[in-house]
Amino acid sequence: MTARKAIENAPPKVLTRNKYGLLEDPDMSYAFNDNGLVDWRKMVDNKWLYPNPSSVARGKIARNADPSSLKDTDLCIKLFGLKEVALIRGYTDVKYNVIEANPEYVAMSCGISWSANYETEGKDVYFEAVADAHLHNTRSFARQFLAAIAENRAFGRCVRSFLGINVVGDFELSDSAPAEKEQHSSTPHPTDPRATLLKLMTDKNITVEGVMGKLMKEGLKEAEKFSSIEEIPDLKVFELIERLKNFKKK
To answer: pTM of whole model > 0.70?
Structure first.
């Protein structure tokens, strides 16, 4: 019997989950944090990781560096790596919502209904993230497929944020990494929703410090380290835009 015939005649591998919502598979080895929760970052296979081009360009790491030897900030993850870990985690539904779309700018949200497991106290959880794509944050031919790029980014960010995987997706990279000074600029490109946020803040006489203080009070602890609105998560940016539109100056 040829190898092909053997594969064709082999029964499919049926995946089942135990009472904790984890896959019962002898080939599956889960990694756990000290708090007992799954370390989903470590569940990403190294074959989906590679050195971040930005870190390589700055001479921080070697182009052929072993991903297992690098920090998360010096890595990139391929989209299929996030798709794979999402399947391992388990979900029942994925939905997309187009927030804005024109030939130069597309903003889209992705919502995933995650299956219940012990991490969510046996409850199904819905989680959503927002991403955008425009002519100045995409690479070469990708500029012709802004909707597809925004879709991939929204899905990737939803998975990364929910599972706590702090590795940038290669689908989020643009042609060139901005200079260090530009990364902390408070003047985003006009097609970036942060430009809308910045204009509203100016119109309402609201400072960056005021926004960060509000975010910290609302539980976004990492806002304490933010130095500009560029660092505010996309979903929060859209929330702030809607809130500021209804904000009346005293």
So the answer is: no
